Amino acid sequence: MKNRTRGKSLLALAVLAGLMLTGCGSPAGGGGAGGSAVSSGGTSSSGTAVDPDQAAADHVAELIDAIYVQQRTGETDAQCAAAKEAWDALTDAQKQLVEGENAGPDYFGLDTGDASADDPRNGDDIGENEILVVSFGTSFNDSRVQDIKGVEDTLQAAFPDWSVRRAFTSQIILNHIQARDGEVIDNVQQALERAVANGVKHLVVQPTHLMHGAEYDELVETLDQYRDRFEHVAVAEPLLGEVGNDATVINADKEAVARAAVDAAVADAGYASLEQAAGDGAAFVLLGHGTAHVAKVSYSQMQTQMEQLGYDNVYIGTVEGEPEGTSCDEIMAAMQSAGYSKVVLRPLMVVAGDHAHNDMAGEEDSWKSALTASGSFEAVECQMAGLGSVPAIQQLYVAHTAAAMETAGG
Known about the structure:
Layout: H1 10-22, H2 52-67, H3 76-89, H4 92-95, H5 106-109, E1 129-135, H6 141-158, E2 163-168, H7 171-181, H8 188-197, E3 202-207, H9 214-224, E4 232-235, H10 252-268, H11 274-279, E5 282-288, H12 297-308, E6 314-318, H13 328-338, E7 342-347, H14 354-360, H15 367-374, E8 379-382, H16 391-405
Parallel strand pairs: 1-2, 1-3, 3-4, 5-6, 5-7, 7-8
């Protein structure tokens, strides 16, 4: 149940087939990145008829694929602008024909909420004290506002003498947001360069990452290149705190996250308590991403934590099925064996982004579709809320940041 590029709609395929059968159409004129839809007739270099609608759509797909990369270059800004300009020039029918390696109609066309409600937190005038909140990021606007901005706003309120700034680690997501919405967010290197240019002396980096995984390691490696450019630098703990050696090792952070996530899930499902939900035959699955990194034991530790809290109808699953015991088939079998008739799915992720919308709640190839298709459950519901939107989770980030400040001159 990995990410997928949306395919053409059946209607669009029918339109394209009809055009090709009649032999009408021509290649797109010119090579400009932002060219408009082409309507004149013509043939390809091989002598076959070229459909102008598909040619225009393919041009946009190429532009999208060019910015679906993890490396930012000196051409990125222009490429993002060109892709959006070319998309806007397409007709509605042509937009449905856009498909590339990573491109599809949803890249620009999917409504994910109001980007103007977000705050990129990329301003100067930082002062000497900065909290840099580093997230993987999400292109789902509503989730970015509720989950990431929610954490950032809470940190700014808790530490008014510090300036909160933002960085995302996924350049793919940064390019998507910039191209589609015109919102420019710093990557980690840009944010650190901004801090240096503004004369920041005390820097606290607060990752919103769930655990000490690969993304956390990469963040620390990047930060190590800048440590000598500040007087004090500290990296706060990710959400689940220290990893520990095996599945039985848990800590106060994991307990706090377990209680906060389950309390929110139970309340949003309309139950007064987890016990009431169990009596109604309802089980909860908190769905994380999963990883092959050694930190994957954190998911097993969270399951241990649920058991120690007596949360017998709460399961920890992962999109990747790592570690062992967290795949959809394994969790489904456990719930079937326990006799649950209802399932509530909720992200064990900071944001309710692409994985939550597609791998958890998607119409096809998702946890919801698989559980529903099994016929074992009379109801499968999805709660589209990231951990970052939960007040108790936001306060846990505050506590982590405060602890880091003690070593960063705060």
